[in-house]
Design brief:
alpha/beta; TIM Barrel; eight-stranded parallel beta barrel; 9 helices; about 35% helix; binds flavin mononucleotide
Amino acid sequence: MIDLSTTLAGVKLGNPLVLASGVRGNNAQLLIRAAKEGAGAVTSKSCSLQPREGHANPTAIAAPTYMLNAIGLSNPGVEAEIDEIKEAVKEAGVPVIASVFAGSVDDFANVAARIAVAKPAMIELDISCPNVHNEGEMFSSTPQAAGAVTKAVKAKVKNIPISAKLAPNVPNIGAIAAECQKSGADCITAINTMPAMWVDVRARRAVLANKYGGLSGPALLPVALRCVNSIRKACPSISIIGGGGVTSGEDAARMLMAGASAVSIGSAVWYRTDAFGEIKAELAAFMKEEGYHRLSDIKLEE
Ligand SMILES: Cc1cc2nc3c(=O)[nH]c(=O)nc-3n(C[C@H](O)[C@H](O)[C@H](O)COP(=O)(O)O)c2cc1C
């Protein structure tokens, strides 16, 4: 018998595959669809206090080994998002993780407190966005800023677990995760996309209208494994949603070996027709071949 269940900060998942924020979950119906396709939990697109328009087109490119996007965190604002999350919580049949972002510590606490009304299973803090009070530096760039957001949210949201979502482009991701845990984070999500650009050499132009975007997909996997493993070393007991470039069952096992408690699936939904069903079946087949019965057996030899 292969047992694919896992627990994230007390939240039970039937399998470890979590739809990553922003890739498909722009509304309740898309979240419900990912759950029907086999996701163990689903994360909504990050929302802010006020509605926000995205960047100009082109906002995304897909190559065989990577994706680049600069969507610009477009979203309808938290008041509209509350209804979407409520519907998803009612219909999805799997835990719904609501993602939020803001430009200041106070706004983070306010947007998290508003989305809590919809009773998601967890709230994910997308702290990889710019801090308006600190010259646009990401909150996740320093332990101090990441900890300040986490602490402010925990003071306002008492009964819903919180996950801090970290960026890979920092000198010591383990120290940032440890400060988030000290400040009350119940879970860490890692990683967000990596800053990148692509050039059309004949047109002599950057391909994205925004010039810079976030790298995701297969090319990100080695970076993500390293980040997740550093976080696991710094925070031996915290729940980790590990992701970045996972597109197969063996990739999911790699992420679990690196220290993840669950595995996020983002760009893979563009690379595979039935990403959740196929990756889940491949992970179960890998476990059977290697003699693993449960996810907690999948460990890295040190
Ligand atoms: C089109 C697109 C939109 C995204 N939007 C968000 C978002 O709103 N909030 C967030 O925290 N991450 C967002 N992400 C990042 C993903 O959640 C994920 O962390 C990243 O893509 C790495 O995982 P992957 O390689 O499996 O896609 C987005 C990624 C993509 C490709």
